[in-house]
Backbone:
């Protein structure tokens, strides 16, 4: 039996990180059907029900230590765990789990992470010291690799791709049902917008008036709160301030249903990274609103869509950017296919590490 512990931003009801988790589980199951997985989760019972694997409370040292002592490998990732902009506490937590695993002599694989920004010199030195004790590091973009090398990480760093790009799940409720639950009964032309609050700036006017332009052109406009606790109020405010009809997708969607929704869309407008990633796989036109370098890095790597910096976002620039993205169309299929292939690499590497240990 192969035993693997997964450490990430799991159990926080964030659709993007849940998508990462489900994609990693699926990739590992494909490589190692016999593997026994344990998540370090903020909500273990919910994670067991959602992902069908064992889970322990990430905040209880005894449970974390117990999982690690039984493991053949710790996987740290994916997502943006090693950054000190949105959460310094989280950054220290993920480094501490890696350090604890190495104290227990458990190998560590950093799995398709987006590293940075790291603004503090001490945080950079801590990151290098801890990661230099890992067995393998894979990142999801070139910028992360350059940052690690700049900080003094000596372990070879491989550029893979976000785990969600490798997801191949199907099923779930029909898309007609998902849309009907939000009040959308005809969606020949559909725009999905996934905003998020950022830096305390009120962007309701820019979103609502810009999306009104698209609605007047015949598009159904659906707002998707990827992390409801953070995004729902903003999505509802945008819909409420629009003069045209807009819809809020308030359901709890597993990853296969998020894919179904995106496949029905012509255009994805998003601050949230994984809305853009799923949109790229589903052949949507993309308008990325980068609140974080990871959004820009993905859009550049996928080679398609449009980027609109937040500081330049106005109702007219949002509407113009949307039109430019629609005119450009879906991302290049060869680029997407290449990234899908790279997204499988870390799971194969996990198997190699475990086999080498046995």
Residues:
């Amino acid at each position: 039996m192969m035993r693997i512990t997964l450490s990430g931003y799991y159990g926080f009801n964030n659709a993007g990180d849940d998508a990462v988790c489900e994609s990693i589980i699926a990739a590992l199951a494909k490589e190692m059907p016999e593997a026994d997985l344990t998540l370090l989760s903020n909500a273990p019972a919910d994670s067991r029900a959602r992902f069908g694997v064992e889970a322990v409370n990430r905040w209880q040292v005894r449970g974390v230590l117990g999982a690690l002592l039984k493991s053949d490998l710790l996987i740290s990732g994916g997502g943006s765990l090693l950054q000190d902009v949105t959460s310094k506490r989280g950054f220290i937590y993920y480094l501490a789990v890696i350090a604890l695993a190495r104290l227990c002599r458990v190998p560590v694989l950093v799995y398709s992470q987006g590293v940075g920004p790291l603004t503090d010199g001490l945080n950079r030195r801590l990151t290098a010291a801890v990661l230099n004790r890992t067995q393998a590091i894979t990142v999801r973009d070139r910028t992360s690799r350059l940052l690690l090398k700049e900080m003094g990480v000596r372990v070879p760093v491989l550029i893979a791709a976000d785990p969600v790009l490798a997801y191949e799940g199907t099923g779930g409720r029909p898309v007609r049902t998902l849309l009907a639950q939000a009040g959308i009964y005809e969606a020949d032309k559909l725009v999905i917008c996934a905003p998020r609050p950022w830096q305390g700036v009120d962007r309701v006017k820019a979103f609502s008036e810009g999306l009104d332009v698209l609605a007047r052109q015949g598009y159904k406009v659906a707002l998707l709160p990827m992390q409801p606790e953070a995004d729902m109020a903003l999505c509802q405010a945008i819909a409420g301030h629009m003069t045209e009809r807009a819809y809020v997708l308030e359901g709890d969607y597993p990853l296969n249903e998020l894919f179904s929704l995106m496949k029905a869309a012509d255009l994805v407008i998003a601050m949230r990274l994984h809305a853009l990633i799923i949109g790229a796989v589903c052949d949507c036109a993309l308008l990325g609103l980068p609140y974080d370098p990871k959004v820009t890095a993905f859009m550049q790597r996928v080679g398609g869509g449009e980027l609109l910096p937040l500081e330049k976002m106005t109702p007219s620039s949002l509407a113009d950017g949307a039109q430019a993205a629609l005119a450009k169309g879906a991302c290049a299929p060869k680029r997407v296919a290449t990234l899908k292939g790279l997204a499988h690499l870390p799971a194969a590497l996990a198997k190699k590490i475990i086999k080498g240990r046995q």
Remarks:
- The chain has a mean pLDDT of 95.
